[in-house]
Amino acid sequence: MTLRDKLDAQRERSAANPVWRATYEATVAELRRMGFLNQALRAGARFPDFLLPSAADRLVGLSDLLVRGPLVVTFIRGQWCPYCALTLAALEESLPDIQAADGQLVAITPETGGRALAVRQRHGLHYEVLVDVDSGVGLNCGVVFHVPEPYRSSIARAGIDLADRQGNGGGLLPVPAVYVIDRSGLIVRDFMDVDFTRRPDPADIVEALRALG
Fold first, then answer.
1. Which among 15, 135, 138, 170 is positioned nearest to 73, based on CA atoms?
2. What CATH number did the domain enclosing 172 receive?
3. Contact 74, 108 (CB under 8 A)
4. Does the pTM of the predicted model rise above 0.85?
5. 106, 130 Cβ separation under 8 angstroms
6. Which has the least CB within 10 A, 62, 151, 195, 213?
7. Contact present, 191 and 177 (Cβ < 8 Å)
8. How many CB atoms are closer than 10 A to CB 58?
9. Mapping DSSP to helix (H, G, I), strand (E, B) and coil, where does residue 179 land?
10. What share of the chain is helix, strand, coil (3-state, %, to 5)?
């Protein structure tokens, strides 16, 4: 199965919960209505510099990564998100192809408290998972939004406390954004959607890396 097939199947399972479905659809509709992605960094812009803690509790900087080659950055909502879990696993499967195209891969999550390490261990990831403390990088990229109360309440009923998981009460989440960045720090390709159940296929990411030559 492709990642798209797996995401579609998960969407059908999630839709069995009418409350979740209603709040999810309302959130996505509102983000589309307000043109949320119009504010996001796109291809042609420079990716904002960062220095973030990793799952291994060491600081990782953008410049340190770019010295080693082009970079793929994927924003994930957190350990609790089944769509993120499917995406992380698909990217792990595609990691050899990403590396063969001279690329590197990092996932960025707003979750603190050791959850980045838990994600990496749970999925057996061989790429960095970085902690976007207070969603600073996501905000600079324009891909972070304030979660509407109905949706926040919906996921809270499932035991997902964003304040506890993120170490702050901001109530922010990233949309599923993926950036391909060349060695100079320039964004050469972006993939994003306000619908967090839809993610780019890893093959498209690999193709973007190969186009860099």
1. 138
2. 3.40.30.10
3. yes
4. yes
5. yes
6. 213
7. yes
8. 9
9. strand
10. 45, 20, 35
